[in-house]
Amino acid sequence: MSLRAANRYDAIIVGAGHNGLVNACYLARAGLKVLVLERNPFVGGAAVSRSLYEGFTYSNCSYVCSLLRTEIIRELELPQYGLQIIPYEGGCTMMRDGGHLAVYDNHDAMRREIARHSRRDAEAYDRYVRDMLRHCRFIKPLLLREPPDPTSFRPRDIHELMFLGKHFHGLGEARMYDTLRFWTMSCADMLEEYFESEIVRGHMAGSSIIGTALGPRSAGSAYVLLHHYMGSIDGAVGAWGFARGGMGAITQALAASLRASGGEIRLSAPVHQVLVRGNRATGVVLQDGEEIHAPVVVSNLDVKRTFLHTVAPEHLPPEFLDQVRRFKIRGSSGKLNIALDGLPSFPAIPAGSPSIRGDLHITDTIDMLERGYDDWKEGRWSRAPYVDMLIPTQIDPTMAPDGKHYMSVFVQYCPYELADGPWTDEKRKAFGKTVIDAIGAHSPDFRDLILHAEIRTPWDIENEVGLTEGNIFQGELTFDQLLFNRPVPGYAQYRAPVRGMYMSGSSTHPGGGVMGAPGANSAAAILRDLGRKP
Amino acid sequence: MSQESPHFRQPLLRTPFHERARALSQIDRFIPWAGYTTVDVFSSAEQEYFSVRNASSLFDLTPMVKYRITGADALRFLNRLMTRDIGKLRPGRVAYTVWCDDAGMMIDDGTVFCTGENEYLVCTAERQLDWFAASAIGFDVRISEITEEIAALAVQGPTSYALLKGIGLAGIERLKPFEHGNFTMPGTDGAITLMVSRTGFTGDLGYELWMEPADATAVWDALMRRGSSRGVRPIGSQALNMVRIEAGFILPNMDFVSAAHTLRIGTERSPLELGLAWLVDFKKGHFTGRRALLAEQQRGPLRQLVGLDIEGTKPAHNALLYTERSGRREAGSVTSATWSPTCKRNLALAMVDAPYIATGSLLWAEIYLNRELVWERRMVRARVVERPFFAPARRRATPPAEF
Hints:
The structure holds two protein chains of two kinds. By secondary structure, chain A is an alpha/beta fold. Chain A folds into two domains: 3-52 and 66-85 and 245-328 and 474-529, 3-Layer(bba) Sandwich (FAD/NAD(P)-binding domain); 86-238 and 329-465. Chain A has 18 helices and 21 strands. In chain A, the strands form seven sheets. A five-stranded parallel sheet of chain A has the order 11-2-1-15-21, covered by helices on one side. In chain A, strands 18-19-16-20 form a four-stranded antiparallel sheet. Chain A has a three-stranded mixed sheet with strand order 7-6-17. Chain B is of the alpha+beta class. Chain B has three domains: 18-62 and 150-235, Probable tRNA modification gtpase trme, domain 1 (Gyrase A, domain 2, 2-Layer Sandwich), CATH 3.30.1360.120; 65-148, Aminomethyltransferase beta-barrel domains (Alpha-Beta Plaits, 2-Layer Sandwich); 302-385, Aminomethyltransferase beta-barrel domains (Elongation Factor Tu (Ef-tu), domain 3), CATH 2.40.30. Chain B has eight helices and 19 strands. Chain B has helices at 18-24, 45-54, 74-81, 129-135, 160-166, 216-227, 237-246, 290-299, and strands spanning 29-33, 36-41, 57-60, 65-70, 94-100, 106-116, 119-124, 142-145, 151-156, 180-187, 190-197, 206-211, 233-234, 303-310, 320-322, 330-340, 345-353, 362-371, 374-385. Chain B has a six-stranded mixed sheet. A six-stranded antiparallel beta barrel of chain B has the order 14-17-16-15-18-19. In chain B, strands 5-6-7-4-8 form a five-stranded antiparallel sheet, with helices on one face. In chain B, strand 1 (29-33) and strand 2 form a beta hairpin. In chain B, helix 2 (45-54) crosses helix 7. The two termini of chain B are 34 Å apart. Chain A binds chain B through residues 102, 104, 106-109, 111-113, 119-120, 123-124, 126-127, 130, 133-134, 137, 170-172, 174-175, 350, 352-355, and chain B through 6-9, 11-12, 32, 35, 103, 127-130, 133, 145, 260-265.
């Protein structure tokens, strides 16, 4: 085989994150010769498990799984390649006054738990769950479909638009109103329609701001909450779980599945630019100057990184570039990965309560959450941060030595750029201290149990993973950036303005959260364009 | 009551009768019901069934959700909420009623006790605080859930009157159907006061006893002692389900799903569809769901709950119904089914499409028979018949007969 032939593929995927790998898997299974290029020496993007401290494995970025489409897991045979998702029970918000609100799977336990705070809220919870499930039922069929271009007269667009219209109309009058209201309203307003108790509202509101540069009182935050609710495990909607071995197990299984169908992955191979000739993508050039050719180039990078840094501007329409520049992809979250010498105690959580095995929080009101957002707007990390912390090693035996624990701490809000100048080691440490102190206020032995802590700011996440501003969703999940407006109007069908070039990352419909749907939808679009059956 | 574990370890509550029930449970068959652990079967559903139709039965209905509704606007509030005219309900009377959402779809059914002027007790199958509170906006009304403050026991069967008289409830013979009153009975530490209503879910002669939880075991013991020679026995949910189908009563989550819980469009049910048109009083003025129900009444129902008499002896649980034996065209499905040991009929309640709801209509039910793990599919005749299937005259006699 000549060198020239060796460097020629049917499709090149830039970025070995989960969506890039999903995309590559589907293309390879359809018979294409596929190459995935990854700049890091490991696959995974933001779904990685890494060992940074002897004996411990961290889910360095994403840390829990619910949204990954079951269709993808089945079709790509991921369980056969080692993927196991274990649902976790529980969760708890610890209150500043020593109280708590726990989450239990059992409906009666949950009702009685909420009733400790408000009897009415305990019953309103059923209505809340019902409405969330109704919204999920509306959105779910849209996830694995290509959004239509509402201005196009292509039969496919008209067909998809009719599907969307019919689906929406099928809701009936009252629910059509509810749906439109819901997609645009703030989480605080939405929760006030259900709950009277501050702690119940505060607890529920957490999911509305995770990974998002919005506060709970910002318009559009209600949808973000739903985005975290619409996943499921084994049919249990809203359930979240751990990938056994950390989130890297997902991308490891995808990589193995890809290799089994003949796909190739090259690590430590950063792409410099997409090669374009006569408005057609012809391949990529790596940072070391090597050229690799393919008629199909798929970028799994976020839309800004793709079009502002990886394609020369002369190939792109200026209006498109302007919209890409204005795409909201603001950094708002940090992450601490902590190796612990033992299980920390949380006096607020009753002994024997399974809630400690779920997601733990220390933000007990919507106001406290909103104050945290105020800090972010002013260019500093929240002085009283929202944390979404989990100790998966209570369930997963593979991530830490027996008796020791790994704690994943997602932190909201943390800005990409600080008001007082760039991030430094000192500021990163101070950010870490803020978070550790905040947790320590609810756990007297926490600080003493820390063996090692990885502290990651949005700036660090951008530098390692490549996500612009470290935004975990590759762009915010607000209504102006969803469906046929994601990432930019007119380009929501996974196709770039350059022919033969495609997008597969979470910047595209239906967005982020380790769903895999953008990668799968994008692969379907590519195969349709190639006239191949998926 | 025994010391209870925290709710995350033991989510279900125990009723004040739990210790007694556990002691009499032969086969440890408990099921969750409205947040409590309750007996499904004590020993044999058939034997328990016959205690209702032949002698006396005790059924613990403490888990029924209970609300006390008071305040200057209590009547106005209830009249707007309920489909029946609560204004006609005098103190000392009980009414069975339903309530709907704005679209006229059933939220729940239950009983309203008028305990005084603007003082009511409402018993419901499912929790209603969220809906009641939302419906109370603008009314001077206080709604408090008192489920745990009242222990409740149904005493049902042809000897139930004799049994209550036997434990010393003086004056019980004057209590008419759908009346309630306070009665006293002798206890070990002085007299016990009970509220007794002549109501029930069995379609038979029967009463429901409402008491302080502290008095629960004394009342239970008195009934069991007095009734031992006449066949009194506690019954579980399975036996109750058999008699309530015979009586033609509906159950939420069996015969309909509350519009407060449905996720899918078109699965909620109106009282007209459930055959409860007699509970909807269009003349009383405005009530929640009135406009939608009026429109539905004028349009005619799309489907209706009907009684079926089904060929053979195998209960047609969850059976799909067809217009012809070929099974080409569906006409509805069975919601509840039982073999009736008293009527010797194979009974069912079914939601059936409008063209086939008339009494006498012939449908075909698809039944699966387990022949020692060899499954057979049968199409059997299902005839639409009048409800209730069983309605003995003794249920209404005042004073009631001794047996």
